[in-house]
Each structure stands twice: as structure tokens, then as C-alpha cells.
């Protein structure tokens, strides 16, 4: 990947919604100067808001932003991506890297619409990226090499964990980290509801549930120990935790999580197939 001689690659973020803003914030945290990043939005109020908050150039023309860019980050909804690619394809300079966070659209979808030889990288992010605690997987297209992937890792560095995978694994990634925050929210909500059932106020039960899930995740990440070891450590013989976990098993919660992830992966495959994946 050859960037401009005078510094960091110039990046255009197309779509300044939830993910677009997370990417913009990550770029600035990673050291991009505000004059090396621009954002497009078709709603002018949102464009103004982003310009005020981050001090970057904003505009409504995807083609003008893409023409100036070394890296084009596509962050619009999947149903708009085709139209946005049609706008930018005629103006892309040779070697411009196209990176997309749109869920479900295969690399072939981009490669079929962009000039031959355009390097494309697909990203499957998740919502905790907006607080720097995301988990993203990146997959390279036919013309993207290690340098392109390394650049995408730099772009995403401040959003959290970034791993490289082959595109065929993105359905599984979608099922685990892409949809996974919803499984964790489901658990948090169930724990909070149980707390209310047991007589705690909703506010107290919610705060305890959130802090407990956050703390357990931090402990698992920092200790590097197997979750079973961590679970056994808080399960004294004949105690409260082992009684609770026996009920989780009796209600097939583990099997439910596996079935949920399989359903998400299958749905991801179906959506990809609709777009030529
Ligand atoms: N949020 C997530 O957790 C998540 C996770 C994984 C992947 N993704 C992917 O990230 C992408 C963006 O999702 P999001 O949640 O950030 O959606 P979003 O908040 O709706 O952001 C999309 C933004 O793009 C704007 N936009 C629409 N058409 C445009 C155009 N032609 N040119 C420029 N901007 C345009 C939208 O403006 P209007 O609202 O005015 O239309 C909106 O501000 C999606 O493809 C999604 O699959 C999101």
C-alpha cells in the first residue's frame, strides 16, 4: 500500500452514523490529523454535528470525498452500499483501498462494482467499538495484501480487538462477536430481572448485573484462564454458585447459546448468498 509521500493516508468515511462516528473517533485517537480525515453524510445537521465535535471536513458528496482519499471507509447501511459504490467507482484513483463495515455483503459484491484491481477489505465490527471495547474481524479481498490489512488494523486500533480471518469465517464471526453483544445484553437483562424478582430495585439490580458481566469479562481477558477454571473457582462445594449453574444446565442454557450462534451464522450465510457471496 503506498500512501502519500507527505504523511498518513487520507481517509474518507462514507456515512457518519453509529459506526462511521466510531471509525472517525478511532482514526483521530490513532493519530490521524483532522485534515487527513473527512466524512460524508446526506443529512446536513448530522454533518455539522460531526464537524463541530471532531473538527474534520464533512460534506455530502461521496464522489468528491473518495476522489481525494487513499482509503475509503464505507459505513452506510448494506442496502445503500451498491448506490454508494456506483457513485465512487468512476473517481477512485488506482490503488485506493476500500474498506467496508457493512454486514453481510461479500467481497465479490465490491470487487464486481469497483475498478479492476481495487484492494478491498471487509470488516465485521460490533457495537462496543463505540466505547473502544469492540471486537472486529477483517478479511482481505483478492487485491488486498498484508500492508492493506496492517493499515486497516491501524485504522481500527482504537475500536478494540482486531483479528484477521478468511472471508469464509465471517459468518461464524458474525454469529459470535457481531451478534454477540445482544447475547450479553440478554444475559444482563435476565440477571437484572431476576434481581427485581428477588426484591432488589430495578436500578440496583441493573447496575449489579452490568458491573458483574463487565468484571467477569475483564477477569477472563486479563487472567487468560479457561472460563471453566474461573467458574470452578467461584463454586464452593454445596454452595450457592454450583446450585445456580446446575439450574443453567437443567434449562439447557449452554445448548441455547450454541443454537443461537448457529442460527445467526446460517442467517449470515443466507444474506451473503442474496448478494452473490
Ligand atoms: N451498528 C453496528 O453495531 C454494526 C455492527 C456491524 C456492522 N455494522 C455496519 O455498519 C454500517 C453502518 O451501520 P450504522 O449502525 O452505523 O448505521 P447508521 O447509524 O444508520 O449510519 C449510516 C449513516 O449513513 C448515512 N447515509 C445514508 N445514505 C448515505 C449516503 N448515500 N451517503 C452518505 N451517507 C449516507 C445515514 O444517514 P441517514 O440516517 O440520514 O440515512 C447514517 O447517518 C452498516 O452497513 C452495518 O451493517 C454496524
TrEMBL record:
Gene Ontology BP terms: L-proline biosynthetic process
One Pfam family, short name: F420_oxidored
EC class: oxidoreductase
NADP is among the record's keywords: yes
Sequence positions that bind NADP(+): 14-19, 75-78
Chief location of this protein within or outside the cell: cytoplasm
Chain ranges of the Pyrroline-5-carboxylate reductase dimerisation domain: 167-271
Pathway assigned to this chain's UniProt record: Amino-acid biosynthesis; L-proline biosynthesis; L-proline from L-glutamate 5-semialdehyde: step 1/1
EC annotation from Swiss-Prot or TrEMBL: 1.5.1.2
GO cellular component, one term: cytoplasm
Extent of the signal sequence: none
Reaction(s) catalysed by this chain's protein: L-proline + NAD(+) = (S)-1-pyrroline-5-carboxylate + NADH + 2 H(+); L-proline + NADP(+) = (S)-1-pyrroline-5-carboxylate + NADPH + 2 H(+)
Binding site for NADPH: 62
PROSITE patterns the UniProt entry points to: P5CR
Alphabetized UniProt keyword annotations: Amino-acid biosynthesis, Cytoplasm, NADP, Oxidoreductase, Proline biosynthesis
Segments forming domain Pyrroline-5-carboxylate reductase catalytic N-terminal: 10-104
InterPro entries: 6-PGluconate_DH-like_C_sf, NAD(P)-bd_dom_sf, P5C_Rdtase_cat_N, P5CR-like_CS, P5CR_dimer, Pyrroline-COOH_reductase
Family: Belongs to the pyrroline-5-carboxylate reductase family.
Function: Catalyzes the reduction of 1-pyrroline-5-carboxylate (PCA) to L-proline.
Protein name listed in UniProt: Pyrroline-5-carboxylate reductase
Amino acid at each position: 500500500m503506498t500512501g502519500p509521500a507527505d504523511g498518513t493516508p487520507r481517509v474518507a468515511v462514507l456515512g457518519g452514523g453509529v459506526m462511521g462516528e466510531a471509525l472517525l473517533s478511532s482514526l483521530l485517537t490513532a493519530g490521524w490529523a483532522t485534515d487527513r480525515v473527512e466524512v460524508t453524510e446526506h443529512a446536513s445537521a448530522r454533518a455539522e454535528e460531526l464537524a463541530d465535535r471532531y473538527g474534520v471536513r464533512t460534506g455530502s458528496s461521496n464522489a468528491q470525498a473518495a476522489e481525494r482519499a487513499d482509503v475509503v471507509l464505507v459505513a452506510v447501511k448494506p442496502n445503500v452500499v451498491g448506490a454508494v459504490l456506483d457513485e465512487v467507482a468512476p473517481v477512485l484513483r488506482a490503488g485506493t483501498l476500500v474498506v467496508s463495515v457493512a454486514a453481510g455483503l461479500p467481497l465479490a459484491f465490491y470487487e464486481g462494482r469497483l475498478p479492476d484491481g481495487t484492494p478491498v477489505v471487509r470488516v465485521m465490527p460490533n457495537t462496543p467499538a463505540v466505547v473502544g471495547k469492540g471486537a472486529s474481524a477483517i478479511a482481505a479481498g483478492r487485491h488486498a495484501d498484508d500492508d492493506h490489512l496492517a493499515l486497516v488494523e491501524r485504522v481500527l486500533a482504537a475500536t478494540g480487538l482486531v483479528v484477521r480471518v478468511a472471508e469464509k469465517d465471517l459468518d461464524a464471526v458474525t454469529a459470535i462477536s457481531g451478534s454477540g453483544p445482544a447475547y450479553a445484553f440478554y444475559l444482563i437483562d435476565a440477571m437484572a430481572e431476576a434481581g427485581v424478582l428477588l426484591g432488589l430495585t430495578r436500578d440496583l439490580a441493573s447496575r449489579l448485573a452490568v458491573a458483574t458481566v463487565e468484571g467477569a469479562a475483564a477477569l477472563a481477558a486479563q487472567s487468560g484462564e479457561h472460563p471453566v477454571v474461573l467458574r470452578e473457582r467461584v463454586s464452593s462445594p454445596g454452595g450457592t454458585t454450583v446450585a445456580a449453574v446446575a439450574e443453567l444446565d437443567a434449562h439447557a442454557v449452554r445448548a441455547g447459546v450454541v443454537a443461537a450462534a448457529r442460527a445467526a451464522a446460517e442467517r449470515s450465510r443466507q444474506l451473503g448468498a442474496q448478494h452473490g457471496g
